[in-house]
């Protein structure tokens, strides 16, 4: 007989930490994107080659999330290379709050096929000039 002792073991169920972004946050992110970023980075994040770098499938964004946050937070016009193409135009400071930056970043990090993880409010707040 295998189990007749009646000694029921309580198993603590470990829920995996949720990595999903809520639908409403994705919608908020899309709205912010449309009003603040789409003019340059285009509807589906494709950018305009040599002028506005792509966000969709961007190796730069994937590897330099902190630096990208800094660029969007404070503006940027330093030379960068995205997917092998050089860009050196101006991105003005977004003027978004840290909370809005979290939402719009989580949107661009997880749209158009991107699967680049997430940023937290602490991470955005820690980004200094
Ligand atoms: C006026 C046009 C313009 C707007 C509006 C704009 N960007 Fe940019 N963005 C640029 C340019 C130009 C660069 C490259 C800057 C450089 O060379 O320093 C860039 C670079 C980036 C990068 C890093 C490079 C890459 O392609 O991965 C990210 C991420 C980014 N922008 C996100 C955003 C987000 C998010 C918004 C909206 C909140 C936004 N941008 C609004 C023009 C713009």
TrEMBL record:
Stored Gene3D superfamilies: Cytochrome c-like domain
Alphabetized InterPro entries for the sequence: Cyt_c-like_dom (IPR009056), Cyt_c-like_dom_sf (IPR036909), Cytochrome_c-type_DH (IPR051459)
Entry keywords, A to Z: Heme, Iron, Metal-binding
UniProt xrefs under Pfam families: Cytochrom_C (PF00034)
GO molecular-function terms, A-Z: electron transfer activity; heme binding; metal ion binding
Cytochrome c domain mapped to chain residues: 24-112
Name of the protein in its database record: Cytochrome c domain-containing protein
Species name: Labilibaculum filiforme
Lineage, opening ranks: Bacteria, Pseudomonadati, Bacteroidota, Bacteroidia, Marinilabiliales
